[in-house]
Amino acid sequence: MTARLTRLLAGLALGFALAVSPAQAERLIVSVSNHRVTVTPNYSGEELVLFGSVEKDATTPANRNYDLVVTVAGPRADMVTRRKERRFGIWINTDSRQFLKVPTYLALFSNRPFDAIASPEVQRRQQLGLNNVLLTQRVGPDYADVVPDDAFRSAFVRLRKQHGLYREETSAVTFLTPTLFRTSIPLPAEVPIGTYNVEIKLFADGALVAKTDTAFEIVKVGFEQFVANTARQNGLVYGLATAFMALMTGWMASIVFRKD
Amino acid sequence: MQLYLPIADIPVNVFLILAMGAAVGFVSGMFGIGGGFLMTPLLIFVGIAPAVAVASVASHIAASSFSGALSYWRRRAIDPILAAVLLSGGTIGTALGVWTFTLLRSLGQLDLMIATSYVVLLTTVGGLMFWEGLRALLRARHGGAATTKRPGSHGWIHGLPLKMRFKRSKIYLSVIPVVVIGLVIGFIGAVMGIGGGFILVPLLIYVLRVPTSTVIGTSMVLTLVTMVFATMLHAVTNHLVDAVLALILMVGGVTGAQFGARAGQKIRGEHLRLLLGLLVLAVGIRFAVELVIRPEDLFTVRETGVTG
Question: ipTM of this model?
Fold first, then answer.
């Protein structure tokens, strides 16, 4: 089963390589405003800025109109989407689908609607838009993505969108000059900790002409990191400390509020 | 004031959590219940993951019940022997409960099991307590002398062997029903993730005829021990106890519990039972409504962790 998934992914990777190799006339240079977002006690979300430029060389055709698509994918995790149905007068979870190693945060930004950038075929191949991003589901013994209007897939995307964890904005990328661009990456407060991959794809005349990657990470530091690490690595000590803290708090309260 | 919780991984408003802790603490101090069945849904409502909420609430209840137990101890309102006998049954019950919990989870419908047992337990217990409280109140108003100890109330339970004297409570009865009640509470607590105080208090009052003067303090001791145990278990097995969240809840909770305990001593027993009955019934009905009414969104998404 895993072999099938690997083959599928390998096939996709090969597809990318073929698509990129023929035209290497443009080069993308990008940077994120902050490569390391630190989570401190007063952390409540952040907004990063991605900026970059399109470098041309002698072979580049003049006056080309560029389109840009930025994909930000957070750490991957397995998720399950459940559907409730009415049985015996009460609403219970009856059916569910498991999504395997899907991004916990996913943002797609572009300078204009995907339909204007490329043909549906290219959109599908390059995974442009939430409808075209590969979200692997376990379907019986198989692993596959389904059609975008599948009830479970659309519910999954809709719920993630509601939490601001999946987003798609087709006007978020702005070209400051014909070759200089920028976009902001909003990170809500409940954004998962981990490494975020940013993929930047440059399109011209409906075809992919250049592609580059960058990344940033969200990490806990100081006190937050200490607590999280202790909880994970020294469960017993952490539990004892918490229980002791509970007893001390209770005892202190009864001293403070003693009425005599 | 926003504060980022290290385990729950979300920022919360400190004052909101403090207020929630204080409110639930007041209720728990007044009735001698843990209040887990109130706190956990509140935390989930604020946006904390259910697993983290359940795990962190355990330590909050431990703090609340310890401060409450101390103040009852000073008033000599705890029966240590009764508590010890209850605990011996409670430990076995907890172990059985954890085993059942694992079994149910492997079968699938654990969430539904928990929701329906909440509804059944809370509405039955709440309804019975409310009804009893109402009757006692009416009796007191019309008949004058209303006492919980009526002649002829000694049923078959008092005919059981292995009798023992519980001095502080001034009762003389068999060890068997006490151990069984401890066992049932331990079991329910482990399966449903609650302290079980709201079931224990009425059981002690109606089945064992423990006087109201010692019932709350004694129930708090049982809650305290089981919740310290639960905190340890959650910390070791799931690593989901958020100490920062727990501390905020505790500070609010113990403050509230002190005032609650004082208020509880001032209110008459029948009124107290009537109020607790109403509260438990209301929460039970709320859970029932949630099961029966069509949910706003039929779909839910839950993270199931990362597979290798």
Answer: 0.76
